[in-house]
Amino acid sequence: MRRPLLLLALLALGACRLGADAGGPPALDPQPLVAPPVEMTTLTDPAPAAAVPPAPGPGSAPETAAEPPPVVVSPSQRACEKAGGSYVAVKALFTCVKTPPDAGKRCARESDCSGRCLARSQTCAPLDPLLGCNDILDDEGRRITLCLD
Length: 149
What we know:
The chain has two helices and six strands, in the order ααββββββ. By secondary structure, it is α+β, with helices and mostly antiparallel strands. The longest helix is centred in the N-terminal third of the chain and has 21 residues.
């Protein structure tokens, strides 16, 4: 099996050599690249910098810096922050997120918590409302999935 393959490879190499000697394209003579000459220029000294205005003296009025515009707070954001919550952006809307007083406490049903009872850890939820999909325990201790967007 190896001999026929070796013979075939030698024949192919020989044919390539014969084709290159016979009527192949003529070999190209390497020629140097011709490019226009590079013009050398010298750098000139930069123009003198503009004069810095003098610092205001004791009798001159100081310049007033532009103050940022006041932050507008909505009434619902003000009420949320007053109640101890955080006003956060959820997608394109804002909502008030609070930490319940019993966050992290062990629970067996939703009535054990002021918010939700998380099914995986069996603890009261750290935030209210719980956004996204979460497995919770209902009032009878059954595991359900609650999704809030």
